[in-house]
Amino acid sequence: MTVSPSPPFAADTGLPWDVAVDDAVGAIASARHRYGDTFALRSGGDNYLFTFSPTGVESFYALPEERASKGVADYLMLRRKLPEELFDGRRVLPGTLFRRDDVAAYLQNLKLALERTVTELGPAGSVDAFDLTRRLSHRMGLASWAGPGCAVGDKFDRLVTAFDILDGSDAFVHPDTMAEVEASGKRAERAALDEVVEIVGASVDRWKGDTGGPDSLFCRIVTAWTDAPAEEQLRGIAFDIALIHIASMSNLAAAVGWTMVDILEHPAAAQRIVAGDADLARRCALESTRLAQRSIMSRTVLKPVHLDTGDAVYDVPPGWTVATLLPLLNTTAAPDLDSWDPDRWTGHRLADVSALASPALVTAFGHGRHSCPAQPFSLAAMTTAVTHLLSSYEMTPGWSAYPRPVPAQIGGVARAEGRCPISYQAR
Ligand code: HEM
């Protein structure tokens, strides 16, 4: 079964999971340049229909989940890295993280994590921007859902090590390493998962003897497993926590990292944020996230769909993946979008979309039914984190040129290719 009418076919283009590419986004950009805004390609035995036209992107965001599934596309991507058993039988899923009281609890945990970060950093020194934000988001996340004692001391360090091995985002940040992961039978990932079960298990025992706060997410996860056979309980709880942590934290950590980088490149903005301009900090977070977006947005077709791209209406059969790529839209859909300008945002929206052929062409957190349910929380967390860190320290960037994203990355928020040292001195 194939797409009808036949779109241009980029026979010379493959995706980084299947072929060696120097620059994953550049390879799709080159195909678009040669074949137009809508084209097909085949990679690793899978068929993809990419679209970048204004109508095509709008149609993409309107695809119904039951016919063209984001959930299935995400699963197929993440399972390249994560052991299959992690997805089986989950009872509390990442999509249920945002009940109203939950967000307040996560933000409270972020404040505690920031205080601990400042203690760890001490009065002066040097730190990598992305190491700093990654450790911070591990700490906030584990305090929010991994149970008593998991965000401090030895347990925390062991969990950080385990989650750095079990990092689902490797599937799109380092797609070129997935063949190796497959060949190893995911041995390292399974060992890391066992470590998570052991540590979380100890904290479940402690919670049962103590109390974890009656309505915390951790408490809800433990409660969801009370009727399971004893031998399944601990693994079930630990796997729910692991999937939530893996699915939620790494893009947020990277986005805070780029926000720090961009603000440090703009000292006037840094000064206003330290003086208390939280609205500017939030707009900086949106702007840095927009520019750092490397997301491949994909939908796995389960039942036939029509995709209107403006110049044609394609019938796309089951088995195909419909996709678009944010870095090819976010910075080029109108003049001047390649520069960092937090003033282009008002609220959560672009202030002026008149130069865009469609507002759907630019985004930080997505459009339509699948747009990010964590956007308000993420922006609040990013604003709090950068404000706290910049107010605690005078920071000086140590990079000689603006950091570059990992070239093979195709998905999520960019990770930096090299080190991004910041030297800091307490204010
Ligand atoms: C700065 C950090 C983040 C960015 C830039 C971001 C970005 C996005 C984007 C662009 C989408 C839409 C993807 C698509 O349409 O294919 C999305 C969806 C989603 N995000 Fe986020 N996200 C962030 C943080 C988080 C966090 C912390 C969570 C925590 C659970 C989260 C959970 C989700 C979920 C569950 C969806 C899928 C919603 C659905 O399918 O209906 N995100 N995110």
From TrEMBL:
Q: What stretches pass through the bilayer? A: none
On whether Chaperone is a keyword of this UniProt record, the answer is no
Q: Which UniProt keywords apply?
A: Heme, Iron, Metal-binding, Monooxygenase, Oxidoreductase
Protein family according to the UniProt entry: Belongs to the cytochrome P450 family.
According to UniProt, the name of this protein is Cytochrome P450
Question: Source organism lineage?
Answer: Bacteria, Bacillati, Actinomycetota, Actinomycetes, Mycobacteriales
